[in-house]
Amino acid sequence: MLAIAKKHHIPITPKQFKETTGLKIHEVVAYWAIKYPWQGASVHQVAEEIIDDIIVLSKAEGRVMPGAIQLLEQLRTRGFKLGVATSSPIRMLQELIHFFELSHYFAELSSADTVGYGKPHPAVFLHCAAQLKSDPLQCLVLEDSVNGVIAAKAARMKVIAVPDHLYCNDMRFAIADKKISSLTEISIETDFI
User: Fold this and answer.
1) Taking a C-beta distance cutoff of 8 angstroms, is the pair 142, 182 a contact?
2) Of 86, 103, 161, 191, which sits with the fewest C-beta atoms within 10 Å of its C-beta?
3) What is the Cα–Cα distance from 63 to 87, expressed in whole angstroms?
4) Tens-digit pLDDT profile for the chain (193 aa)?
5) How far apart, in whole angstroms, are the C-alpha atoms of residue 142 and residue 72?
6) Does residue 140 contact residue 158 with C-beta atoms inside 8 Å?
7) Residue-wise over 13-22: b if at least 16 C-beta within 10 A, else e?
8) Measuring CA to CA, which residue among 147, 133, 84, 138 is closest to residue 113?
9) What backbone phi and psi angles, to 5 degrees, belong to 146?
10) Distances (CA, A) of 161 to 68, 73, 143, 188
11) DSSP secondary structure string, the chain?
12) How far apart are CA 162 and CA 185, in angstroms?
């Protein structure tokens, strides 16, 4: 995001990314246009360039979180219905889920593109639950952003926060039902009841 912002002379720093964590990319860039205006490329153009760049970088440098595959295997074996609810664009979600060979784990891929609102609005979680034919009160969300935790709690779902190590001391994660530092810390027997 910073590289594309610099390319278009958008005056932001990595510190300012915290202001928009969990929002849709187009919402992030629209926010920048208000708070840090620039001349030239449109909000849509900048957002689409960021999406393209995130996809390329994720494929080149991204990785699946430690413990994710093992957890997904255990959940699938035990018959849990699994979905992804994200503020990321659907094209990015589909491309990266496929690239990292995770598609077969998920019965539903829900993007804020579909529901019109990004996190912290609960719409994407409620949509995912509805598509899975699941009661929100019986859903468990694994979430890495504060806005995502807020959205899941607003949807009346149980939430385990798994923040990036850079944000693990953010006190706002206290609203989650539990906070862990790695997916390897999850216990299906106690956390999924």
Assistant:
1) no
2) 103
3) 19
4) 999 999 999 999 988 887 887 678 898 999 999 999 999 999 999 999 999 999 999 999 999 999 999 999 999 999 999 999 998 899 999 999 999 999 999 999 999 888 988 889 999 999 999 999 999 999 999 999 999 999 999 999 999 999 988 888 999 999 999 999 999 999 888 887 6
5) 12
6) yes
7) eeeeeeebbb
8) 84
9) -65, -45
10) 14, 20, 5, 15
11) -HHHHHHTT----GGGGGGGTTS-HHHHHHHHHHHS--SSS-HHHHHHHHHHHHHHHHHHH--PPTTHHHHHHHHHHTT---EEEESS-HHHHHHHHHHTT-GGG-SEEEEHHHHS--TTSSHHHHHHHHHTT--GGG-EEEE-SHHHHHHHHHTT-EEEE---GGGTT-GGGGGSSEE-S-GGG--HHHHT-
12) 10
Residue 3 CB neighbour total at 10 angstroms: 10
Domains of the chain and any CATH numbers: 2-61 (1.10.150), 68-191 (3.40.50.1000)
Tokens of 72: 């997904």
At 120, list the tokens: 């912290």
